[in-house]
Design a protein that fits this description.
With 126 residues, this protein is α/β, with parallel strands linked by helices. The chain is built from five helices and four strands; from the N terminus they run αβαβαβαβα. Helix content is 34%, strand content 13%.
Length: 126
């Protein structure tokens, strides 16, 4: 029987994500349970992608996304998840704006990005 004063660890985020945003737990669940249901894009420069990226991610630097998107994402209604370095990443904002302007309708973001992923000691692919 557990001690009544034992602490409980919660996997819930400190604050709920905003609409269109995923937290680390939600992204992990999608990667494990539905990896083929979306395309994951790292929107940082390719040199940073080469140093390590999230499992299953493709490199699509934000400044080149307007040219890369039609090749990488032929279905404008498919789910796309974009991430960058972490909260406040300007490349992430630029990527979301670019994809919306190109007519992509199901764009989600993982605003915690590489910082949040690393903070949870989750693996990077090199």
């Amino acid at each position: 029987m557990a001690h009544p004063e034992a602490s409980v660890i919660s996997l819930a985020p400190l604050s709920p994500p905003l609409p269109g945003e995923l937290d680390t737990l939600a992204l992990c669940i999608l990667l494990l349970e539905e990896p083929l249901s979306f395309t994951l894009l790292e929107v940082l420069p390719t040199a940073l992608f080469a140093l390590g990226h999230l499992p299953g991610a493709l490199s699509a630097p934000a400044h080149r996304l307007h040219r890369l998107a039609p090749q990488l994402l032929p279905d404008r209604e498919a789910t796309v998840i974009v991430y960058g370095s972490g909260r406040g990443c300007t490349a992430l904002r630029e990527a979301r704006e670019t994809l919306a302007a190109l007519g992509y309708t199901r764009v989600l973001s993982y605003p915690g990005g590489k910082r949040a992923w690393a903070a949870e000691a989750l693996p990077f692919i090199r």
